[in-house]
Amino acid sequence: MSSQTIAEKARELLRSMGEVRNTLRQYISVRIKEEDVDITFELLEILAYLYKKDGSNQQEIADIMLKDKSSMTYQIDGLVKRDLVKRVEDENDRRNKLIFLTEKGKSLQNMLQGWVAGLYDKSVQGIDEGEIDSALELVQKMNENLKS
Questions:
Q1: What are the distances in angstroms from CA 19 to CA 13, 23, 80, 90, 143?
Q2: Are 76 and 43 contacting, i.e. CB atoms less than 8 angstroms apart?
Q3: At what angle do helices 41-52 and 6-34 cross, to 10 degrees?
Q4: How many CA atoms lie within 13 A of 96 on its CB side?
Q5: CB 50 within 8 A of CB 65
Q6: Are 67 and 54 in contact (CB under 8 A)?
Q7: I need a labelling partner for 48 at 20 to 30 A (CA). Which of 1, 32, 58, 126 fits?
Q8: Cα separation of 37 and 31, whole Å?
């Protein structure tokens, strides 16, 4: 039986989650370099969200990425400069800009999603779906506790 308290176990869990994210980031960064794609991990995260929900507004993307609006503006500027996304004025609110993938941005989707899918497939080897469900539920409860 472990002598760790539940708080110490929680700390170790959160540290391990950070380590998983860093490993994922390193793997994707290596693949980006190998394929000579002009993109960063952070920009790839934004593209991945737009692949699911093209035409999102900048604030929604910032909220999902846990970034402030000004740093999101900078990152989206980087995607615009690379011709991967474009800003379109929202017809309902002219102050709001919707972010859409360009054809060039869409053309990267299969390659980029293939890398990510392969990585996630590798990460869950030997783990059953119930374990993933339990872990997800646990992390969501911890997050709710911290927000309350």
A1: 10, 6, 31, 39, 18
A2: no
A3: 90
A4: 12
A5: no
A6: no
A7: 126
A8: 9
Which CA distances in Å does 37 have to 43, 53, 103? 11, 22, 16
17, amino acid identity = M
Q: Retrieve residue 58's tokens.
A: 């900048």
Backbone phi, then psi, for 86, in 5-degree steps?
A: -135, 150
Report the alpha-carbon distance of residue 108 to residue 94 in Å, rounded. 29
Do 68 and 49 contact (CB within 8 A), yes or no?
no
56-57 sheet: strands from edge to edge: 56-57, 93-101, 85-90
What domains sit in the chain, N to C, each tagged with a CATH number? 6-147 (1.10.10.10)
Q: What is the pTM of this model?
A: 0.81
